[in-house]
Each structure stands twice: as C-alpha cells, then as structure tokens.
Amino acid sequence: MACWWHTLALPTFSIDFRCLVQRPKHKTRQATQNRSKMATKCKKRAVLVGCNYPNTINKLSGCVNDAKAMREMIVSRFGFDSENVELLTDEPESTCKPTRANIMAALKKMVVAAKEGDVLLFHFSGHGLVHRIDPHQPPNEGEAIVPCDLNPIFDVDLGQLIQLLPSGSSFTIVSDSCHSGGLIDKSKEQIGPHSTLRGIAPPVDYKTRGISLATLFQCLQTAANVIIATQDLFPTRALGNAINTGTDNMTGIGSLLTTIFGNNVSLKFLPHYERDILNLRSLTEDEGILLSGCQANELSIDMPASEKTGGKAFGAFTYSVLKVIKESELGALTNRQLVVKARNEIIKLGIGQQHPCLYCSDENAGAAFLGHQPNTTTGA
Prior knowledge:
The longest helix has 18 residues, at about 215-230. The chain contains 10 helices and 14 strands. Helices cover about 30% and strands about 15% of the residues. It folds into 2 domains: about 45-210 and about 275-365, Rossmann fold; about 215-265, no CATH class. The protein has helices spanning about 30-40, 65-75, 100-115, 155-160, 215-230, 235-245, 250-260, 315-325, 335-350, 360-365; strands at about 45-50, 85-90, 120-125, 125-130, 145, 155, 170-175, 190, 205-210, 210, 290, 300-305, 315, 355-360. Strands 2-1-3-7-11-14-8 form a 7-stranded mixed sheet, sandwiched between helices. The protein is of the alpha/beta class. Helix 6 packs antiparallel against helix 7 (about 250-260) and helix 8 crosses helix 9.
C-alpha cells in the first residue's frame, strides 16, 4: 500500500529551498549580496530517531514510521540532501540503533559540522520520561527523551549541544514524546499551556509515549540483574549497591545508569554536576526552536494502524505535522502556523487532551519552518 501522503495533491507552484538566514536591520546592496551568497552555501542537516522498543513492555508502534516519513518529507519538500540526513531506528535490521551514545554522537557530529546559515533538525519519536508523577511534588528536574537502551537524554544535554552552534545557524527540535514541552531550556513559550483547545478523549486502545520513573527503574534493575547473572561486565557488588540506592527516584536511576553505562550518561548524573563546573549557561530565547508533541504535563499519543492513517501506525503529532505540510497551499509555513494547524488536526483525530506547543523567540515563531521559503523571484 502506498504511503498515506502520496494520495494528497501537491501544489503546482515553483518553489526553491533557500536556507533561513538572519536579515539585517538595514537593507543594503552589499548586505543583500552577502545574504544571497550565504543562502547558496548553507546546508540543511538532520538527525531523525524512531524508537519502537520492540519485544519490551515499553513497545510502541508508530515511531519508526514517523522517522522514515519525516525523512521522505524533508528530502522531497525542504531541500535536505539525503547524505546529510542520519536515520536511527531500532528495527531488527538496523545497523545503527538509537542508543543514547549513538544519538548524542550523531547530534554532536551535526552540530560540529554546522556553519553560519545552516539549518539543523533533530526529530525524536519515542518515549519521554514521566518523572513528575504527583502534581503536588516539587518542580521536576528537567525534561528527557528515552533512547532504545533506556539511557535518557535530558534538556541539559541538548542545551550543551546548542551552545556549540555558530551564530546565524538554526536548530529545530521536533519531539513526538510525552512531556516534551521544555526540552530546550529557557525557550519562550509561543504556543503552550495557556492555549485552550478541547475535544473528546482518545480511544482506549491508543498507547501513550511516556515511561515513568518507576518503570524505568524496574527495567534498569532487570538489566543489572542480567549483568550480575552473567558477571561479564561489572563487579556484582557494585551493581547490587546501585540497585539498593533508590526505588523509583532519580538518585537510584542515576546510580544504576552510571554503573551500567559508566560516563556515557546524562550530565545530570556525572559527579559534582553543576552548571559552573561544566561551564554551562542558560540558553537565551533565540537559541533553539522546539515543536513539542504536547505540553510538559501531557501525554503524546501513539496511534495504531488504521484506515485514517493509510494502514500504518504513527504518532499523532508527527502524522498531523506531515499532513499539514502536505496539504498546505502556502509556499511556506511559519513555525507558529505549523503548530496551530497541527493542533487542529489532532482535534480532528478525536484526540483532545494533547496540545502541541511551540517554544522559541518571537522572530523564530514567525520564521519559515526549516527555512522553507517560496520562490519570490519567479512570482510564485
């Protein structure tokens, strides 16, 4: 069966895929020429991740399809060269699984290679960490996404990468996971919890894309017990002490992670974690663009295959984003327009308790998604 978006009519106008660059406050002939040169030299790069967690209690259905559909979209409609798009999935045949180490290595490679004017995309489809179980608990300790090896990537890890970007480049995160609103530190809320959209509850057979602290701890404990049984990697006593450190809290999870993965863990779990020691700073609101599948206190839906999705499973947010882009008659959608339209599509799917959000500066909210701009020179 053909992919669902192949049935949608594409606009017939001519477009090009010029990269998004910063506009000078005062337009001059020389500045325009410089901007034109930058547009021809800039590149678009992407890291796309789909984690279905097969053969586990955390199994999802639509995440790999999300990542593959996003790859097809950005190559065919947004001018990405397939050589600059890295796809990581946990399919059995995949040669590069989306572990924390592989994801962070791919992101670092993309960021280090970036030049002024480049457009970067990180799309993650999978579980988010549900670490604030009780709304009366103290504020959470940061948002996180969960790779296939259950070694979380926190907002502080992404923030450290964003700080390495050269001026004039852009970094967009599209996260289709639970509790994803907040993955970029200090980003300004453009479309968020204050918006009020309501609808009916999703069907009961829909899964959510979130792993609780308790579930994560249990899974890591099982992995640790396997290691103890085989005694191949670590001393039994060290693993036993890690298991006994905590139950379902962040301290116990951090102890298990560092024992199993060593230093290949989030900055949050490294010894003496402090921003000053690690030379970290809070990001400014114009650093990074986050399109999140839901608010920080909400769950994202993993939709099973159905007629409405062309017989394939997808994440509700990724499906809606791709559908909006495919059906749009505009030469370009701004980040704000895309999120608003995606919210409306999710409502049409009968999912009223998931509200996609946008976090970025005012300028980036009005900028074209992934720098996709209409060809004004041809009058299109």
